[in-house]
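hey so i finally got around to running the thing on that chain from the lab meeting. sorry it took forever, my laptop kept dying and i had to restart like 3 times. anyway pasting the input first so we r on the same page abt which one it is
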Amino acid sequence: MSDFFDLPDDWKIAGHDQAVNPPTPNKGLIITGLGGKGKLFRYFVVISVKPGVKLKPNLQKIVSKKFTALFPANKAELEKIKLKPDHLELLILINMDIAVEKIIMSLISAINQFKPVLHENYLVVNNRVLTSAEIRRYLKEPSLAVVKSWMEKQK
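ok and heres what got predicted. didnt touch it at all, straight out
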């Protein structure tokens, strides 16, 4: 069995940038399409809003403050936030030892604590930033069945 895999160039670059030390027999190397920083993996997240709610510009500051207060930099970092009227787009770094769900659900709960505006279901990928068309398709029907079907089509 070969020790080398033929990966697409963008994955090779992401793996190179992500690797702190080369893998050893007791330590593997995890490569994701969006890369990472040290022990933090990068994820693209879409969180939809509840029906009838329009997000206001001040929510971007609130989300940034809540995120910073909830998670020290060694656990998670918010790199980018894009506020749309019907959803949030986040580019975040999350420690490899922490479940993505824990971070995202904690953030959603903190935002919804005062006024429930965000859905508890969300879409997260770590291989690339989704296009506007892909996000629109997800937002039309953000059920688990639709997400599973969508993921199958991406293969």
